[in-house]
Amino acid sequence: MRILSCPEETLRLQCRRSPIFKKLSDEELAVFLPGVTLVEYAKQDLIMDEDTDADCCFMVISGHARLFHNMPDGHERLVHIVGAPDTFGVATMFRQRTYSCSASAQGTCRILRIPRENLIALTQKSHVFALEIIVILGMRIRMLEKKLGTQGVRIETRLASFIWHRATFHGIKDTIELDMSREDLVRAILSMAGYHRAAALTDAFRSSFADAETFRENLGFIALAEAMGMIKVNDPRDAFRPRDAATRGEAAEMLWRFLNRP
After folding, report:
1. What's the rounded Cα separation, in Å, for the pair 248 and 115?
2. How confident is the model at residue 153 (pLDDT cuts 50, 70, 90)?
3. Nearest in space to 92 (alpha carbons), one of 116, 124, 121, 114
């Protein structure tokens, strides 16, 4: 493993190859890039180690990284092969824990190491970037769901069990606030999914939330979200609190419910 010298303009161009980073403005990249390093790994070099502190995520510039689990019997179980310009380890940055698997270089490869603090700071600074990550990670979950679904695995049950286990036994809580309100979050997700025209027909919708009068401007979006199961009213006295800051956990839950709507 060796750290390579790399001009900032080259780093900027390389980042924009990634689906996650391609929409960043020059100003956002100027904040994001300090501390990002280009590293060259030789074949079988360890890139990240399972169960060690997750201090950075990675983007493949050239070559391939092999993701795997270390099994109790000493064998390795392959998880995925990642090539340019894909990223890995991103979701781990938001769990604030350790790496969930190991990664090694399949051959000579070059990889950007992105510090956790850079990614978290940019997520909190730009709600557009935060939503981009949520959408891309949601798509990856969807792909995994389809892959496992062909094997007869009940995804909803297993994922729900996994999330419950992590929350119960590891005490994982997600209260990091996004730079947007709860109603802005609903509007953003449904607009990106193409529902903005339907949501504009406000006269056709009614919300069950007790504070519906406080979000008349976005009534169509919030009523659609209710109908799709993205948000739920358990009691007539429940309030949506449209102007409260949305948390990352709420964003992930809404997107998950949207992707798994009936």
Report:
1. 19
2. very low
3. 116
Both tokens of 129, joined, read 């970037």
DSSP state of 73: T
Residue 255, token pair as written in the block: 């997107």
The residue type found at 206 is R
Is the CA virtual torsion 90, 91, 95, 97 positive or negative? negative
**Which one of 78-92, 102-116, 178-192 scores highest in mean pLDDT?**
102-116
Q: At 72, list the tokens.
A: 């109790």
Yes or no: say if 182 and 241 are a contact pair by the CB < 8 Å rule: yes
The pLDDT tens digits of the residues spanning 24-66 come to 888 889 889 999 999 999 999 999 999 899 999 999 999 999 9
Cβ 129 vs Cβ 123: under 8 Å: yes
